[in-house]
Amino acid sequence: MIEIDRITKTYDGVHAVDSVTMTVETGTITIIVGTSGSGKTTLLRMINRLEEPSSGEVRINGESTLATKPHLLRRRIGYAIQGHGLFPHHSVARNIGAVPELLNWPKDKISARVDELLTLFSMDPVAFRDRYPAELSGGQQQRVGVARALASRPDLLLMDEPFGALDPIIRSRAQDDLRRIQQRLGSTIMLVTHDMDEAIRLGDRVAVMDGGKLVQYATPAEIISQPATGFVADMVGDVERPLRLLSLIPVSEVVEDGAAEGGALPAGASLRDALAACLWTGRTAVPVAHDDAVVGRVTLDAIRARAELHA
Amino acid sequence: MTVAANRIVAGEGVTVLALAGAEVTLPGLVAILVGLTLGLPGAWPQLRLVGAIVGLAGLLWLLTHGASALLDGAGDYARVSPAVGFWCLLLIFMLLMADALANLAPGPLARGTLLAAVLAAAGIILWSGALSELSILQEYASRKAAFANAALRHLALALGSLATAAAVGFPLGILCHRRADLRETTLPVLSFLQTIPSLAMFGLMIPILGWVGNTLPGAQAIGIAGIGFAPAFLALVLYSLLPVVGNTVAGLASAPPAALEAARGMGMTPRQRLLRVELPLGLPVILTGVRIVLVQNIGLAVIAGLIGGGGFGTFVFQGLNQTAADLILLGALPTVALALVSAIVMDILVDLTRPTPKGGA
Ligand SMILES: Nc1ncnc2c1ncn2[C@@H]1O[C@H](COP(=O)(O)OP(=O)(O)OP(=O)(O)O)[C@@H](O)[C@H]1O
Ligand SMILES: [Mg+2]
């Protein structure tokens, strides 16, 4: 558990981060979202003490971060910097193995870990291990940057716009990868982005920052259905709010008995997918299948009723 | 081309055609012509390289055979020197060779081998005595001991001052890199030192060190005096500091900020950042500074001859006093050769330390 307690950072009298208090549960993904200059990076960097707070403190599992020497603290916390920050003179393998090397892991353990991570990020170890960062595409560099942050299996992972340079397709794949990896390792992730879509897709909880202040800290559904301020509502986008909301709800929540025509949707699909299927094919209901067996249907009426719950 | 080309003999000129019988001059002239025809058209660097080598061989052939032919029957005191045509052709072939090599861009290892081969060839030619009838080597023969002495002195001056400057300059550069205030005071002072004309600098050393030698007890015992080795050495060290410190600062600053930030973020201590990130990334720039200093000091050390510092400068200034051109050359040629060789060696080192194989830095 990470407790951020009235933490403030002041540059020349201006509050870059203004008395932010929030608690992050172990094993969850927390997304910090906000416009440029809202203090996201500064907040993140105060957690591993790359910036010293002007006031307030951070506790990890009850222990103040001030109790540990900064460089020892940072070795326990994975950090993927905004822009990949890879070492240009080290191979991909040495880059990924940098923290384990600092922690004096044995060589064979490091190289096994490097190969494991490369495979996890869909990069063939044989092809990529010995390349230099300059020989990678922007997206590959970013994935290596994230892999480097994960290398020592840190309990806490701080990521600053890790998917910024990726095209939409690779980006959503990388997000899925990250979700999968996080669920498997049970690590705690705090990720900065200015993209509300990414926040809603990826976050267990979303923290919205505006002008250094934390204006809302809630689940994605709450952020969409009950934006705390006009700023949050703007970030979510009024027009798209209902669709965003539907995208968070799986069809399994409103599935009912009965038959419907046409192709079936998997049970894991969202209500947004169901709505799209209805509108696109002119149906009023679509069948829902679980492992190829139809288990029921979702009707337009049920989708509407579910959406109105939040309106 | 040929007629204007080669005149050999001090005093009165002798054209290449009048040198000796055709059986001697012809192969040389043909080689030079072949060299020029192969070398001058720019299409293939390989051909150009071959042309340059053939041409140089032709020049060498003419030089050795011409010298002995001319001396044949001349008096004991007669002297033979290559004249302007020889030097021009030498320059042309050297340029062709340099250009061809630049185009071929051989790897560091190939260049090392090439340098060793050229040095070995030069050594063999000199040692074989084929050129020993040339005036400059006559001068050498009469000063063997002094020459060896001067060579040692010259190297001691150039390398010693470099080592001292490095011992002081690297730590100073690292400190300057860490602390902006120190950097802002140190670098201007060093730049100012660099702008003092070399003659003035050596001149300035005389009263300063003279005073130190006279006032500090024991200073004279370890060789500190107004003239001689110490002032020359000190002047060279002072000249070396700016390139060493400046390039150390620039090299360390060349690491990408994001990489440094990442290094900090993963928990490297300042020392680990220096050793693992800043130094390896900055090494080529730092070594370039060392290269500048080495070449500069080999050249500047000549002026040390003026204040009794020894080295090849001694011959140059003796030669200037006696207007003996060959004596000047005896000092100047080894200096140039030394500077060239060290420049090439340092370039190879710089290349070898490039942090990424494709020379990305
Ligand atoms: N070292 C610094 N000195 C002075 N001001 C700073 C410093 N670092 C950040 N700031 C200021 O603090 C504010 C917050 O910066 P921060 O980098 O946290 O923003 P951000 O939300 O990460 O923005 P972006 O999305 O553009 O990365 C900005 O107004 C910035 O100008
Ligand atoms: Mg930022």
Automatic annotation (TrEMBL), chain A:
SUPFAM superfamilies (UniProt xref): P-loop containing nucleoside triphosphate hydrolases
One Gene Ontology term of the biological-process aspect is: quaternary ammonium group transport
One GO term in the molecular function aspect is: ATP binding
Q: Which InterPro entries match?
A: AAA+_ATPase, ABC_transporter-like_ATP-bd, ABC_transporter-like_CS, P-loop_NTPase
Q: What is its EC number?
A: 3.6.3.-
Pfam families cross-referenced by the UniProt entry: ABC_tran (PF00005)
For the keyword Calcium, the answer is no
Q: Which Gene3D superfamilies match?
A: P-loop containing nucleotide triphosphate hydrolases
* Keywords in alphabetical order: ATP-binding, Hydrolase, Nucleotide-binding, Transport
Signal peptide as annotated in the record = none
Tell me if Hydrolase is a UniProt keyword of this record.
yes
Q: What positions does the domain ABC transporter occupy? A: 2-236
Q: What is the top EC class of this enzyme, as a single word?
A: hydrolase
Entry similarity comment: Belongs to the ABC transporter superfamily.
Q: Can you say what this protein is called?
A: Putative osmoprotectant uptake system ATP-binding protein YehX
Output the lineage of the source organism: Bacteria, Pseudomonadati, Pseudomonadota, Alphaproteobacteria, Rhodobacterales
Automatic annotation (TrEMBL), chain B:
Which chain regions cross the lipid bilayer?
16-40, 47-64, 84-102, 114-131, 151-175, 187-209, 221-242, 274-294, 300-320, 327-350
All copies of the ABC transmembrane type-1 domain together span: 151-346
Q: How does it sit in the membrane?
A: Multi-pass membrane protein
Subcellular location field: Cell membrane
Return the GO cellular component terms, semicolon-separated. plasma membrane
Highest taxon in the source lineage: Bacteria
Stored PROSITE patterns: ABC_TM1 (PS50928)
In which family does this protein belong, per the annotation?
Belongs to the binding-protein-dependent transport system permease family.
Descriptive protein name: Putative osmoprotectant uptake system permease protein YehY
